[in-house]
Amino acid sequence: MLHPAVLAGVWDHSNFREDMHGRLRRTARFIAVTTYAHRHDGLAAIARVRAIHERIDGMLPNGTAYFASDPALLAWVHLTETSSFLQAWRRFANPGMKQAERDRYFAEMARIGHMLGADPVPMSEHEARRQINRTRGVLRNDERSSEVCRLLLAQQSAFPGGSMTRELLTRSAVDLLPFWARRMHGLSSSGPAFPLIGAATYGAAETIRWAFRSS
Length: 215
Description:
- This protein is an all-alpha fold.
- Helix content is 69%, strand content 3%.
- It is globular, with a radius of gyration of 18 Å.
- One of its GO terms (molecular function) is oxidoreductase activity.
C-alpha cells in the first residue's frame, strides 16, 4: 500500500472497494496454485497474471506514468509478499527456522518472481532486506494508502460469527508489519494486548495444523 505506483494500479483498475474478499480469494488462489499445483497449472496462472499486467497503466496524481508490467514494481510486490509470508511462518509455525532454510525459501520463490517479470528478485533473506531498505525512500503514506488501510481494517468477516477470528487475524497482520511500516501507517502494536493476540494466533495455527495432520 505504501508504494504509490503499485497502489495506483490497484486503485485505478480494481474493484477492491466493492469486492475486497473476492480480491483476497483470487490472490490466495494464485499463491496456492503456483505453490502446490501441477507445473502446467502454475504456468497458466502466471501467464494470466502477466496478460492482465500488460493491459494496466496510468498516471500518478503527480503526473508520473506507471505500468503494471514494470519489473521494478513487480519486484516490490514479490519482495513484500515473500517477506511477509516468511515472517508469518516464523512467527506462528517455526520460530526456530534456520538461516539456510530462509535463504532457500527466497531462492525457490524467486522462480515465480522471475516468471512474472520481476527484477531484481532476491535470492536470500539478506538480499531481501537490502532491497527493502533501498526502496523505502519511495514509499509514501498518502490519502490513497490511508483509505486502503482503513478499508482493510474495517472489513467484516465473510462468514457468520467470524468477527472474533477476523479481529485476531487483522491484529496479527498489523503486528507482522515492520516497525517503520506501522509507523508510516499510524498503526501501533504496543500495549498489553498484543502478546496475547500473538499467542492466540499461534494457538489457532497449531490447531489447524493438528486438524490437517489428523484428517
